[in-house]
Structures are given as structure tokens and as C-alpha cells.
Fold Molybdopterin-dependent oxidoreductase.
Amino acid sequence: MTTGRRRFLLRAGAGAGAALVLSGCQKVLETAPVRDLALSLDDFTMRSQRLVTDRKALAREYAPSQMSPFFRPNGSRTVDRPEYQRMLANGFADFRLTVGGLVQRSLQLSLAELMELPARTQITRHDCVEGWSAIGQWTGTPLKLLMDIAGVDRSKARYLLFQCADEIGGVPYYETIDLVEALHPQTILAWRMNGQMLPEMYGAPLRLRVERQLGYKHAKFVMGIEAIADYRTIRGGKGGYWEDSADYEWWAGI
Ligand SMILES: Nc1nc2c(c(=O)[nH]1)N[C@H]1C(S)=C(S)[C@@H](COP(=O)(O)O)O[C@H]1N2
Ligand SMILES: [Mo]
């Protein structure tokens, strides 16, 4: 490795450095070849973080006494759609989570079916990019279990796409994570929070907990999951609502 490249690697590995490089180039980013370069920089940030951190490492878990007395809700707190409000009023009895894309078996699972599967409970800290944190307890279905049941095609699928029920300014919220993150033991689709069924403002009926990533990756109001080969062909091409609309980095590892 050349010294220049090593120096860049150190900078990219620091995360904030890469963000600075990117934000300084906003105008140049409009052209496709340069945008591709920026996307590969994002990939590069991820790979260099992978060199210095263990992607299998567990996020810290906390004791019940450390839970925040108030967990701040953020982003969409409600879903302003009649179909959603009908399901909410009905305790999500008619809700079906769809799992599809690059899987051997597409699934349609009710909340009751999900709740019958082995679940995991964890008390973790949520870190929002806006600069606040909160510690809460989450119970849900390990995503790995769902991927095993659906038979995710590991030779083709590289990412999972989470489709959410809410829209911000008319644009549907969505997120993508890679399979390493998806299959991590603490990555769950939570249906319980702080000992209660997940309230609407925290993303009922299901919200993603992907504990080693910043808050915006934790998709709330999840209606469907799709295993995909690449997020660059989807919607704005940057892999998530905030990535598309405010240039948040796709890789939000903490
Ligand atoms: N569907 C959906 N998911 C979302 C958001 C949103 O607006 N819509 N906001 C994100 C952001 S920025 C954060 S910090 C967390 C907030 O989760 P909370 O409401 O449980 O605190 O949800 C994330 N997931
Ligand atoms: Mo956030």
C-alpha cells in the first residue's frame, strides 16, 4: 500500500473525515461518474471500518436501571394513511409482513406468527445523528431467523430493503442494510418496546433495531422486506430516505 493510500484509509476510517470530503464536493457530485466515485467512497468507508472493527462484535447492552425515563421519538410519529390507521385500530390483526426478493420462499407473516418465533430482548442505546441518545429495551424476531426461513439467496442478495408505511413530504421512507448487518445476532424486527407492544410513534407494528448503526437506519413501520443485489437501482439510488434526500451516508456504523 502506498503512503498516500494509507493516509487516505486512516482518514476514511475516521468516518467524519470521509463525510467532510463528501460534503465539500456536493456540486461536483451531480455528474454521474463523480457520483459513482462518491458511492464507491461510501463503500470504501465501510470496508476500511471493517478492517479496524469486528463486524460480528456486539453492541453494548445495558441494565434495566440504565433505561432512559423518556425515549425520544423522532421522524414520523404517526402514519397518516387510512389503511394503516385501520390496521392500528384493529391491533394489526390483518397486518402481514411480506418478505420477498432474492429468497427461495416468499413469506407473508402475521404479527401473531412472528411473535410465536423465538425472540430476542436487548437493552441498547439509540444514537441519532442529530446528537441525542436514549436507552431502551427491545424485543423482536431476529432477522437472521426470518432470512433462514425465507432462504435468502446468499450468492445473489447483498442487501435487505425495508419498506415503511410512512411518507415524509410525499416520499416513502425506506432503508437498506447489508447482509452482514442483517444477519448480526442483535439485528431484530422489534414488536415490543420497554415491556409494551410497540406504540405507534416508535414504529408499530414492527421496527428494525440494527444496533451498530445510527438511528436513521432503524426503519420504523416496516411493511415489507426485500432481499436485493444492489440499492443503487432503487428509488434515489443512495440506499435510504435520508441518504437520497439529505446526503446522509449509507454506511452509518457507530
Ligand atoms: N419509517 C421511518 N423510520 C424511521 C424514521 C422515520 O421518520 N420513518 N426516522 C429515523 C430516525 S432519524 C430515527 S433517530 C429513529 C427514531 O426512532 P424513535 O422514534 O424510536 O426514537 O427512527 C428512524 N426510522
Ligand atoms: Mo435520527
